[in-house]
Amino acid sequence: MDVLWVILLLLLPLLLWGSSTFVFYFKKCFYVGWMMVLALVAIPLCILKGGGRNVENMRIIRVLVRHVKYFLGVRYDVSGWEHLQTEGPYVIVSNHQSSLDVLGLMEILPDRCTMIAKKELVYCGTVGLICWLGGIVFINRKKTNDAKNVMADAAKTMLDDQIRLWVFPEGTRNQTGDLLPFKKGAFHLAVQAQVPVIPIVFSSYRNFYLRKEKQFNSGTIRVNILPKIETKGMTLDDVASLCDKSYDVMRAVFVNVSDSKPTSNGPSRN
């Protein structure tokens, strides 16, 4: 058994250096495993400090997660910090590329902010439990009426508890090199609550992370926090135009800041 461990330890650096596919799976497995461990650490802290389900627990989660980027070789270049200094509730909308988005979210997450996420996430072991403790709002994407009711309740909660909500309006992960059409839920939410929409754009991951090609190198993600879009005085008739305006602004920035050409920042041989 000792000999086997020695062989594995000797092979590991060779595989990390020589196989981009191995690097991809190694980083992905490490990421998932380490996030589950961090969630296990965070659960008792959130229960002791927050007393249970509480948006303030996102502070604890944010502190615990922020170092993970260094292990994966990911860095963030953030501009527009001043736009998150808006007082009171607001809705953040951002593009959604992969599970790595969680790291970018935690990099800039403002206080008293949580997310809207798919209901399936709550069943993901320790990660699901810590999401629940962090006050994440879960929606059933397959049942439109349920989702609408959750959004209506979320609008009331935003105002009553003075919280911010982060939404991925594409509705699913997307690594096509462009933005998918936006769903209107986030904009219904903002109009119902009469709170601003703050668009945030993450540059394409394609210069270092390609899921189909099994490439996961080191890279820098450019994050642009854009000026808020006011919704005061808007009605449900304005939701479509608000959605279109947000999409157009975000897509223009995404195209401008993204480099769609993959670069070799790590092993390139399989």
Essential attributes:
270 residues, 46% helix, disordered C terminus, single chain, alpha/beta, two-stranded antiparallel sheet
Commentary on this structure:
By secondary structure, the protein is of the alpha/beta class. The chain is 46% helix and 15% strand. It has 9 helices and 9 strands. It has helices spanning 2-18, 20-50, 57-65, 68-72, 101-108, 125-133, 144-161, 185-193, 239-257, and strands spanning 74-79, 91-94, 113-118, 137-139, 164-167, 197-202, 209-210, 215-216, 219-225. The chain has a 7-stranded mixed beta sheet, with helices on both faces. A two-stranded antiparallel sheet has the order 7-8. Strand 7 and strand 8 form a beta hairpin. Helix 2 (20-50) packs across helix 6 (125-133) and helix 7 packs parallel to helix 8. It is globular and about 70 Å long. The model is unreliable at 260-270 (pLDDT under 50).
